[in-house]
Amino acid sequence: VSGGERKRVSLAETLATRASVVCWDNSTRGLDASTALSFAKSLRVYTDVGGRTTLVTLYQAGESIYELMDKVLVIDDGRMLFQGPAGEAKKYFEDLGYLCPPRQTTADFLTSIADKNARHFQPGREETAPKTPEELERAFRESEHCRRVAEDVEDYERGSRSANNDKHRMFEATVKDSKSKTVIGDSVYTVSFAKQVAACTKRQAWLLWGDRGSFYTKLAIIVANSLIVSSLFYGAGRGTSSAFARGGIVFFSIAFIGWLQFAELLPAIAGRATIERQRVFAFYRPSAVVVARVLLDFPLVLVMTLLFCVPVYFLAQFDVDAAKFFIYTLVVYTVTFCLTTMYRMFASLSPTVDDAVRFVGVVLNIMFILTGYVIPKPALLNDSIWFGWIYFINPVAYGFEALQTNEFFGRQMQCSESQLVPRGPGSDPNYQGCSLPGSTLGSTTVSGPDYLEASFQYSRANLWRNFGIIIAFTVFYLGVTVLAVETVKFKGTGAQSLIFAKGRASKADEERREEGGARAAEEAFEPIGDGQSVFTFKDIHYTVPYGDGERRRRLLDGVCGFVKPGKMIALMGSSGAGKTTLLNTIAQRQKVGVVSGEMLVNGAALGPDFQRGTGFCEQRDIHEGTATIREALEFSALLRQESAVPRADKIAYVDRIVHLLELGDLQHAIISSLTVEQRKRVTIGVELAAKPSLLLFLDEPTSGLDSQSAFSIVRFLRKLSDAGQAIICTIHQPSSDLIEQFDMILALDRGGKTFYFGPVGPNGSVVVDYFARRGFPCPPSRNVAEFILETASSTPSVRDGERVDWNAEWRRSDEHGAVVAEIDRITAERRPPAATDAAQTEFAASTAYQCLLLTKRMFVQHWREPQYVYSRVFVHTIMGIFNGFTFWMLGDDIASMQNRMFSAIILIFFIPPTVVNSVVLKFFQNRELWEDRELPSRTYGWVAFCTANVVCEIPMAVVSATIYWLLWYFPAGYPATASVSGYTYLMVLVWSFFQSSWGQWISAFGPSYSTISNILPFFFVMVAIFNGILVPYDSMPVFWSQWIYFINPTTWFARGVLSAVLPPAAVQCAAAEFARFDPPPGSTCGQYAGRFVDEVAATGYLEDPNATSNCGYCPYSDGGEYMRTLNVYATDKWPSFGILVAFAIANWALVYFFIYTVRIRGWTFGISSVWKQGARVLGRIRGQGKQAESEDV
């Protein structure tokens, strides 16, 4: 919908409150004049019929709107200058000595009183009339109007205190009757909480359906991951060798969908502003939205859980037992639900998305590490003295125990060949043991419950207790969320303080700039451009696909026109008529749909420098929020003005723009802290600073400005036009003075159809004459712009009993023929005789200069908005401390060896989701600014965009990697030798480069943040499970082990780091880690199993070779033997480093590749076609379903 249509939705929402007192703050901003008048009339009826009190602030209010008001209040600098009947305000100020010029509306006259540059005095009263706010306030307080206001207030208060105040009692009774019977008497809400929840649930369903593409993507990722991961465990067998791998698939089951629900953070925070506004409107309690989301989660999470659990359970060859399957599904469903409520709890407590991602990322990582899989429960509680207690407040840990005990209950595992001790020549089956924990002496079968008890201290008896604990955590998270949304309030979108950058310019510089700007205000502009370029557009049609993509909608229908140097064209029409669409089309900014017609400059096709030679001021004020006003203007001037112009001249021109837009006092203010009006000035200033030589497009530059500011802007545009600038400007509510500043009007009706294009004429005489000759004269006192819109655009015009088709009238008119003839003449006369060889560049500045300025701006962005940097440092600091002290000074037994391995790879398992998500969000924010404003305006190109983003990540990567390594490496007790510690630091550093660049190239390719946030878990899972850690390389199916293992970057990080830190460590098995067996009678342990240790296993050692019973065999004697089971070798060290560096470089290359191919060239790599085909299939299925239903009926 258009901006005007969005505004009308906001107005309708406010009217739906049925409030007795309603305040409308510039509510007609963005509406055309006729729609604004219609709205004001509606307010008049709304106030009269409903007996309501209505307070309105309006900018650029026409006389027709002003006449609808009962009273008017004029304030300046917080002081009341007048309050009284609207019809008496003008006379009051005239009596004070002010003069209202002819054709000036009363509203504009009253606004000008507070503007020393716009007000006029009656001859001879310039010195005696009050001028300052203090003097005007004193004059009012001494006037009869002030006395009447005081009397009115006193009479009202006296009546309110009266015991016979029937109106007050009637009001209370009406309010009571309007409420549901189930609502508490003093509640501000009219319906019960249950009805609020029902309404919010319905709305959440609508929102889901509107963004169903993201949900479908999530479901597709779930199905894909479930099939891929379960295939990795397919055929693993049911023996003891698969016990640890089964723990891996159980861990994946408990974590994956909950991990995927990480994407719920953004909508939970993004919708906060709407919820707060509607809370103020007393529509519903914020907690109703929380409950509504939970209710909608019940079916949605169930669908996701079933799509995941069915393939995983059966492909992973879990027990084919109905009870076990349903328990498995129930626990996965409950844990997912619990984690989703936890995410929303953190969202409700976080002021920004960055904060939420930071906290949730750390908490989720800690939860997964302390689940009991990476570090078994006994080790957590006995050895990890600092953090082991977290196990008891971790719902994922209870879910993991429940699933483990469900899976291994009743299972008897035959000891696998590789775990029999001893085996090979000379071994006797009657005298063998099994190396799996939980085995018994002399038995080659291991009970599932015994294995869980020995390894994890898990018991089947705790299954339903654990389920209840997960439910309790869910209720707790939900309760905290409800409490938080009702009590915790964050900074809203209302009034805020201006924030200024540190290091302001010196006072001398300020004075010099002010003096230069003051002189500039009075000087005429030097000639702009060559004064010869004429832009023509003829028969412009624009259609867009909608619905299933098969249908087309025409938004522009045969629009013609031309823009000559030194001319200002006002583009007018009702809201939704296609004004912005036309601007975007002729400015070459449309990204979808089909554009047809002819657009030429001097009769020649548009060259690559066309967009650089134009300025485009959008409706939306899109800026780099951390920049100051001056920085934004200088950035535009330095990169967009011709490179031949000296830098000093560009800065001087910025000084002039700053003064003319009255931004001198605010030039060092941070843009994100500005008001709407101030942002609009900055938007205009950024485009003016570029000094466009060909055309200046402005989309509603005066919306949100008061009449004097609007006139100041248009007057400034007039000066630009007089200097040779060609200008096309959409304008909604122009006053008579404003419209006279324009040379021509291009008026559009609904559907993008032209109903007038031609001169305005003195006092609008030419355009008025056009309509008068067709039976619709304009009254002498009428605003020409309002007359045009009301006559031809807002309501159907009737002539001789028939509706007038103004587009047909225009096409039949002589004026239309003259326009077409003029376009043809311009094209014929100015068309170059042959192709010119003159160099035309797309950008004014060199690529190197673009990279330099943009990189500098991006560094400043990170400095002034440090949440992004803090998030990265915070995650690496917390995880470094957590990792280092959880695995504090590891020992030399097998459990410590495994912990060394897990501690080394925690960086690649648990930190990437948090880091990559934050990188993706920041990259998308930067990409939005670039794609929406700075690329179309040709401020800088794709190479500069990529380079700046890549370069600015490098310092953060170095700092965060260094912090993590220092806090992890030495506390965990790894070797302090330089060759090992230095190498490990290099690997951590390269991985830090890799993960940030990984998020960037995914963002470069991805269509939206919501889609990418749903896809990211797919990538995380793929790199986490195919590196030979969770599933050893030798146990992988051949299909995966022969390719994906080797193209996985985490494989090479793990092989490199483990090859460095494991070999020096000797292994001394703890008593419980020895595999026990008895030798045959008359033999010692060494005599019976020595050959097995030396030749068959070729690893490990015997506890006591001379023992004659209860022999103990330790599988490993040093770290080298252990790491070979992971397909890691001592020679992997530097090859792994080189390969990981290659991955990081490839990521950076992919950033450039995808930005160019997808964002510049528009390639979709076939994905768009697949998506459209899927949409068509679904559309046909729905259509057939509806047809079948109708036939049944």
Automatic annotation (TrEMBL):
The keyword Repeat does not apply. Residues 535-775 form the ABC transporter domain. It is found in: Membrane. This is Brefeldin A resistance protein. The gene is Bfr1-2. Signal peptide: none annotated. Pfam families: ABC2_membrane, ABC_tran, PDR_CDR. It is a multi-pass membrane protein. It comes from the Eukaryota. Keywords: ATP-binding, Membrane, Nucleotide-binding, Transmembrane, Transmembrane helix, Transport. GO terms for cellular component: membrane. The chain crosses the membrane at residues 215-236, 248-269, 290-313, 325-344, 356-375, 463-485, 869-890, 902-921, 942-967, 973-994, 1015-1033, 1134-1155. CDD domains: ABCG_PDR_domain2. It comes from Colletotrichum shisoi. GO terms for molecular function: ABC-type transporter activity; ATP binding; ATP hydrolysis activity. Its main location: membrane. The keyword Transmembrane applies. Belongs to the ABC transporter superfamily. ABCG family. PDR (TC 3.A.1.205) subfamily.
